Amino acid sequence: MDDQKVTQLRIETDMRKPAAYFFFFFLPFLSMLVFFLIVQKNPLDFHLVFSDELDYWVETATLIKRGLFSPNAGYFGYSFGNFAVCLISVPTGSLV
Amino acid sequence: MTVLALNAFFMGISFSIAYYLIGSFRKILVIALSLFVFYPFYLYYQTGMIETLFYAGSIILAVLYVKCFTPGPRQQSFLRLYFWIVILFSLFRLSNLALLIPAFFVEIRLEKQRFLPVLLKYGVLAVGVALVSILTAASYPWGFLSELGRSTEKLSLIGAHTVANINLYFGESASNELEVWPRLLFLSWLIFLCFYSVFSKVLITKKTDYFLLSQILTMTAILFINLIFYDLGIFRDLRVFSPILVFSLIVCFLSNRGRVFIKIVFFLAVIFLLVSNYVVIIERNLAWDLFVARRYEAVHPPAILNSVRYNPDAKTRWENTVYVDLAAYGQLDWQNYDPGMGLMVLGLEDIESLKSANPGSLLKAKYIISNQQGQLAGYDFITEISNLSLYIKAH
């Protein structure tokens, strides 16, 4: 990389303002706040509705509390014929 | 509440990274504000679905895309980063593999790598990602791919499904406007890119613009994957098309294709946003009910999951698994859920087993929560609350 390019890169990086990072990071939180003010709902009353989001939530809770490779955590999925093939063959798993 | 904060966090990180890489406050602000008035984004922004993560990823990928096509000292690093983010997002949604097309073009056209080894590399990786995804995720039994897996006449099934999807794509038998418009916006944008690309090649540059061609091929691949293999329907394909549309719009907005091109992109984006919000006004009752009202209603579910506890000494994983009727799934007392308990939705075959003479010999899970009443052979009845019955496997 020649000196001119390095200098150009440094100038571009220096132009970014810390306040702008702060602004962009908090903008989505601000937009959510505006949303709650418009719809007049309390964010503390929020709960999940769709089965997909409920699945994500319970699976994440299991992952956090019992670990990724827990031999005892139960199966998730849709019926006996529709589970994850690799996750079924665990050391203690006896399916039949 | 945590879910909503996490959504805001993902978007905040994404905007900050985009600002770091682009360095233009004004451009990132335009992108951010536009996104917050685009309904496929803002409706899902209020949910715990994975969509917000995809939009956050789309912004970062779009910025990296522009950087990959811009010759410079860090082009290789941007390409690698783009590549691995696409691989990561493909594990969540396999069709995202189509986003590797631009990386492929950068390698063979701009970096002058040899075609066959690069093709082989991308092919092997795509197959690898698909295998990991297929082997570690449960398939959706009511989806087309499951049906295809069970079918003995696969080709004719694919043909019939594609024709049905093409009819659906243009709004025939659509139940609401919210699901139709993202398809049309996606297609309009793809057609615009095709026209502009041809116009640019014939009249202006006289050479192929791989920057635009990569997007055209990516969007076309996503379109065909959806038409051939996916299920178009209520709030399904909308979730696939929209983040890709946002990705392409941002790529073009940030490109250095000249002022006229940027102005056209901006003009089209404004039209898309106006159309999108007009659609929400038309379908405001549905949007309000599904994405707002139901999420803040006070609910008092029957306390049934508190009788289903995780057993750390279980000999098999089925001892920590509950079968749940799909109809009962939304009525459960999730605040009492014990992490580690697996929840498996009863499929059609299982419901048949449930109705059979001896369900206990056919079903594996220790618990069943169903809105079916009465005794189940092989299972002991524990309790019934608000039409939900809990059963435990008999010893």
Protein traits:
heterodimer; A: 96 residues; mainly alpha; B: 395 residues; alpha/beta; 5-stranded mixed β-sheet; 5 strands; 63% helix
Summary?
Chain A is an all-alpha fold. Chain A contains four helices and one strand.
Give an overview of the whole structure:
The complex is a heterodimer of chains A (96) and B (395). Chain A is mainly alpha-helical and 96 residues long. Helices cover 57% and strands 2% of the residues of chain A. Chain A has helices at 3-15, 18-39, 51-66, 85-88, and one strand at residues 77-78. Chain A is flat and about 55 Å long. Chain A starts with a helix and ends in an 8-residue tail after the last helix. Chain B has 395 residues and is of the alpha/beta class. Chain B contains 17 helices and five strands. Chain B has helices at 2-22, 25-35, 39-42, 51-68, 75-92, 100-110, 115-136, 144-150, 154-169, 177-205, 210-229, 237-254, 259-282, 284-296, 326-329, 348-355, 359-362, and strands spanning 321-324, 342-345, 367-370, 379-385, 388-393. Chain B has a five-stranded mixed β-sheet with strand order 2-1-3-5-4. In chain B, helix 15 links the parallel strand 1 (321-324) and strand 2 (342-345). The two termini of chain B are 41 Å apart. The model of chain B has no long low-confidence stretch (mean pLDDT 88). At the A-B interface, helix 1, helix 2, helix 3, strand 1 and helix 4 of A face helix 1, helix 2, helix 7, helix 14 and strand 2 of B.
